[in-house]
Amino acid sequence: MTTRLNINGQQKTVAADAGTPLLYVLRNDLALNGAKFGCGLGQCGACTVIVDGAPVFSCVTPVGALAGRAVRTVESLGTAERPGRLQAAFIKHQAAQCGYCIAGMLMRAQALLERNPHPDEQEIRAYMEANLCRCGTHHRILAAIQEVARGGRQ
Amino acid sequence: MSGVDPGRRALLRHGALLVGFTMLPGLARAEFNAMGLPTVVDARLPGSLKTAPLLDAWIQVAPDGKVTVCSGKVELGTGVRTALIQVAVEQLELQPGAITFIGGDTARTPNEGYTAGSHTIADSGTALLNASAQVAALLRSGAAAQWQVDVGTVWLEAGRARGPGGRSMHYGLAVKGLDARGLHRAASVAAPLRAPGAYRVIGKPVARVDIPAKVTGGAAYVQDLRLPGMLHARVVRPPRIGARLLGVDTAAVRRLPGVRNVVHDGNYLAVLADDEWRAVTAMRALTLAARWEGGTPLPRPDQIHATLQALPAENIVILQRGTVGAARGPAVASRYTKQYVLHGSIGPSCSVAQLSGGVLTVWTHTQGVYPLRAALAELVGMPLDQVRCIHTEGSGCYGQNGADDVAADAAILACAMPGVPVRVQLMRDQENLWEPYAPAMFSTVRATLDGNGRIADWEYDVWSGSHNERPGNAGKLVPAWLRARPIAPSPSLPMPQPEGGGDRNALPLYDIPNARVVNHFLAVTPLRTSAMRSLGAHLNIMAIESTIDQLAVLAHADPVRFRLDHLRASPRAQAVITRAAAMFGWKAGAATLPLRGRGFGFAQYKNLMGFVAIAVEVLFDPDRNTVRILRVACAADCGQLVNPDGARNQLEGGIIQSASWTLQEQLQYGTAGIASTDWSTYPILRFSQVPDRIDVALIDQPGKPFLGVAEAAQGPMAAALTNALAQATGVRRRDLPLLAAR
Prior knowledge:
The complex is a heterodimer. Chain A has 2 domains: 3-76, Roll (Ubiquitin-like (UB roll)); 85-149, Orthogonal Bundle (DNA polymerase, domain 1). Helix content of chain A is 32%, strand content 14%. Chain A contains 5 helices and 5 strands; from the N terminus they run E-E-H-E-E-E-H-H-H-H. Chain A has helices at residues 22-29, 85-92, 102-115, 121-128, 138-149; strands at residues 3-7, 10-14, 48-51, 54-57, 70-72. Chain A has a 5-stranded mixed β-sheet, with helices on both faces. In chain A, helix 2 crosses helix 5 (138-149). Chain B is α+β, with helices and mostly antiparallel strands. In chain B, the strands form 7 sheets. A 7-stranded mixed β-sheet of chain B has the order 9-10-7-17-14-15-16, with helices on both faces. Residues 1-31 of chain B have low confidence and may be disordered. The interface between A and B is large, with 57 and 61 residues.
């Protein structure tokens, strides 16, 4: 059986059952590395992507629920050669250690900044609560998001 | 991708004949020490050149001038790849992006044992610093010989040797001016090292080479490896350690869509499918189809320390100085405990393996490709030189997580499907239930003041299971226990001082005339345990620093002043303490608001590596039993700095991770088994709980040895939090985690 999806602005048809979690389709059928398997339970946020503007745990979201909805992954924000604004802020602040959680962090932060372009630190912390980092890179992640929230001003 | 470069292997074999470099099957695991290191070839050489002295084991120059730098240390997410590149290019006069860097590949890099213990920059960085300086000198000599000019007139610049009259040649041509050995020669004891004041790359905050891919979805991890024709595997582990598989009907699972094979060998179960989600689905069906019985009962968690104390111990006196027990002044006597803690990698462990052309290639995020290779070769019954382990990054591990176990799964399953690449990733509950935990441990301390308010004597005893269950033999790997012909783990051994295991940092650095410290090593304990960032230092430093604060109270002294007065022989210790206190605005005798507490913690990691002092201020909420960390001031001296921003990142991360361990982390389990299967049953700090503010100051030591930094903050942060909470609550808590319901 096949499923039609809108991924990063492109229509894709994948040979996956409706019950397959989006994460596996992104990583395997579409070879997109950004979203990561962390818990499979929606508890850690490593798999976070944006669906119609909202952050979603792709590990617990079946592709059958995504008809007509726009899915965005970290790959949509930019490339290593031409990083997007938030990605550039993460690079500037060296906001990663192992980095396994970082693509999910970026997508949750991106969703916040699209809803509220100028969140303060408390709003950022509250919004990012759903995503775990084990390396303890939180302050750098906050600094990178705040830089974009302040319009590039430190 | 799977073949071993025959030229490289021949080169290394040749090297082995000359100097004992480690590729011959005869030089096997038995000759590795506890850190997975081969025998020392020349003890006079700096860093890891001691065990791998050939210059071209580290730095290779291709005929076209391209430079490849090899390290046996691997990137675990700490930024060492970038730091090692910085060291290597300094005197080779290359840009960091101009070299190819290989870290941890048994076909290509030296054996530097495990990437652990904050050793990477001290071992591999020191080797590369000296090797690159010697290679740079050889390149100048080679060019000078061909130009027939004095070597003093030749310099290196941007990848070319340059000489009088505008002459230049690339490094590949310069090497041709050397004798037939080229760079295939043993390092010298003395290297023409650049003066630290002239460094152009070392000591600079060079941006990490791996971060752009990690923030843009580039292929950065072993989880991202996709080989042609690759199958996805999932394992089914027993529900409890020691459980036996009574029966399993695999026929129905074999008929599921996409399933290519089911492997059933004793208590070992796995399924391979053509698609990852199909593998997960089949794993669930296989889980339901399996019937288990028995299992090793676990102790009651509320009695774990009594259980540990009753076990047979190897009692090792690690310090006996003067006479303890004779002093009669004010005394402190206490007991400190720690529960089992999870590594808690965000990404469950993963590996890819392929048996092709008679060679088993394993892509793995292990901390030690060579020791793992030896264990895998034993596991699958292949000669050492037909197994190749290639380090490929995974999620941060902070010690031995499931990385080596899942590499064993991949090896077993690849051997069951010759020619086919097999990718295995553990599920969250499998990672949590089967990883080797940081050991539960406890210690007792008794210390006495003399009539002048100085410490007169000190007795410290620490009980802990093993902090080093790394391979080792194949029996250190979980899959080896489960197969029909199991392999037992090799005996657990204490890690000796000066680095220590459970007794790491059990020796107080303070001036104390009479002291006795005993390590009670427990070779067999109820749960599987192994190395986690700082080992026993987390509890030992917390216990020592808690005692120091209590003694300061008895001596009517400010705790920072009291520390300085007992560290007169260590100006570097005094410097970080003074700096952290100044950053924090520490004032002796300053009054605090109710429920607020300030605390201080200090240690030199292992008493021989990085110095870290931390001051914190906390606000305690008695109604919710929570702590808000208002601010953290940290000063660190990790010797000659290589990448100051990388060092800061590690210290900030260590502070937050240690805060999580210290305040709230403990493995949940009952007599029936492990209950911490996910993040709801093993909560770690989230954004709302991390400190409001962290300031880090680095004290550079130009020209002094690299000391490492990645593990140095764990103990001091635990100590500072414990001392701050004691002030905030008025009651000293001595059992970790500090906020556990009791």
